[in-house]
Every structure is written in structure tokens, then in C-alpha cells.
Amino acid sequence: MDGRGQRKIRRNTDEQKNHLDRAGRGGAHRVRGTFRVFGDKTSGGGAPAYRPYAEFSFGAQHPARPKAVWADGKGRQVGLDKFEGKVVLFNYYASWCAPCKHELPGIDRLQASMAGKDFTVVAVNIDHTGKIAAGRLKCQPRLNHLDTFVDPQGNSGKVLGLHAMPTTFIFDRQGREVGKLEGGAEWDSKEARALTKYFIDRPEYTDNLPKK
Q: Please, are residues 92 and 166 in contact by the beta-carbon 8 Å criterion?
């Protein structure tokens, strides 16, 4: 199998599905996406273990923008307010997390193809060595389209409720969480792109959720 085939994680296109429907409470859009994923939730290293699918978990209530902060490559504090007006795919990764390293090339390709005035990827490294570990990972394989963000103390993860690695959140244009996926996934796949575009095209999605 060539490199591209490995990154596709033995895709079975006959089984892959993506459902975008109008259902749920209060007339809100409820989206269910299925992805070919790899690697169990892990807090350690080791080779990825393959499993067929994981479902993106959608928030059931109207959230507020979390006050999570992390640092950029120059040590400056960053929060979700920096990306106001864009849908944000927010990913946590680390050097000791094999599924994280496996999904990063796809996340980089997603940023390369979709980043712009409506969307961006924020990938945050949580290694204790911070920028050093992030720099090494960006060279193996070389990731050309992801900015460097680090949180060696894990403070933003505590605010967001990070429980497994990798975890990827999607935030709407106002920085409100619409859902998350715990575990590695092909974020540049057709299904993942469709899910991301769904929120880009529907800025009213979160407003229609029940208030907390």
C-alpha cells in the first residue's frame, strides 16, 4: 500500500455515510457524521489500533464561548476570540499519541484546502516541552499549513473538558462549541469536509439549540 493509501486507512467507500438532516430539539439542525477512524482513545503511545467508525458528538445545548487560552509560536496568549467570524476545527495532539501523529497530515491538508475567511484549523500541542515537541512533529512528516500553538500546562484542555487524545472540537463563528470527536479521524475525507462545511453554511445552528 502506498503512503496515500495508508492515510486513507483502508477506506471502504460502500460503508461510509454522512447524514445531514433537520431534526432535533427546538427545530435545531442536528447533524450526524460517521468517519473512518483509527486508534482507540489513548493516553499513551503504541501503534494505532483500527476500528471502523466513531460518531461526532454534538452539543445538545446552547453554549457560551469558553475562556480557554493557549500560546502561539512566539509565546503570545491566544483565545477563541482571535478567530471570531470563522468556524474553527480545534485539535489537540502530542508527540506520545500515535493516533494524533497519524491524523495530523490529514488535518494539515484540510487547512491547506479550506482555510480562509470562513474557516481555519487550530492544532494545539500539549507536550510538556511545548514548542520544541511541536516543531519536531511538524517536520515528521512536514506540516506546512498549520500554525504552531502550544499548551504545555494543559490549561485550555481543563476548560474545554479534554479527556482523551486525540480530541477535535468544532467551534462556530462566535467561538461556541458545536461538537467534538474523541479519537483519530480522516479530517480531510469527503465526510469530514461535508460536516465542516455544514457549520460554515449554517451560522444559525448554535442559536437554535436550547439555552442552558
A: yes
